[in-house]
Predict the structure.
Amino acid sequence: MKELELKYGCNPNQKPSRIFCREGELPIQVLAGRPGYINFMDAFNGWQLVKELKKATGLPAATSFKHVSPAGAAVGLPLSATLKKIYWVEDVEELSPLACAYARARGADRMSSFGDFIALSDVCDASTAFLIKREVSDGVIAPGYTPEALEILKQKKKGNYNVIQIDESYVPAPVECKDVFGITFEQGRNELVVDDALFSKIVTNNQELPQAARMDLAVALITLKYTQSNSVCYAKGGQAIGIGAGQQSRIHCTRLAGTKADNWFLRQSPQVLSLKFVEGIGRADRDNAIDVYIGEEYEDVLAEGAWQRLFLEKPPVFTREEKRAWLNQMSDVALGSDAFFPFGDNIERAHKSGVKYIAQPGGSIRDDHVIETCNKYGMVMAFTGIRLFHH
């Protein structure tokens, strides 16, 4: 198949629309559904991300994409009892490593992942397909599917769920092109390999960068490689826990990603874990309620007449002081940035979310101030010398 006609482009008024290869055949098969333009944009960016994550870590990887940026990305490390609970998978007896990767990728920022497109590094098994089936999602791309997994996925959306199989041996041309306003842009593909060599130039007083932190920094940088810039990523335990994408100001990226990382950790607090929801409440409604409860607009779910629709009993207010006390326990978080930090304010914000390890290109005229701020908190910062813009 050299080309595939699509229903429309980014919007229904943008016709005609298709994907095609200038040379050779498309490296994909559509096994179910009818993926659209944005679906394929998410699918191909996501596939590159998980393929590189697996190469860098040796572990199965998954990502959850929305609007051509990842909402989450992770490798297949086992889940603690707490993570199983906040990712809504505590009822599943056996989780394969790939299923753990997907649960992490989908669960880190469940609000953003609603209606996502999934990419998997390995053949999708029944364990992973079962988790996918019960989430609101547009589709999945993987190098293959077991017969049982494919049957499970074909039951989703009355058989209209998008299931794409990609040839994992496919290698794109070294030069890529795209048209904007009738003008063709051409550039060499970003073939940067993220490995330990990127973290060899440590510029802070603290020089200790343990292997677990190196893996988290690799997760962060590979995620940023496929995130619309400007972008910042917080990572911990083999997964992205907060991604700030597409912001014009880097401090806004750091704040946005930091807030998402804080929410991820707040969801693990006793106040949230003890919430008692009414029977039969939907997964998305639970996510929305938790997001509001831990935010500044908590009165929206605690008001009389509102809480009864969500909870069996009215939860106490999760005060700002209580939230800060819980967040102060957050530690050993890794942070990556796709370009240099121009000011130390980014480090100050990162510190509030437990960041200890940082990888960024360096090269700002205020590098000395950024390094000084890291030293104030005993952080470890590596200058990679590599920018990772993606548009």
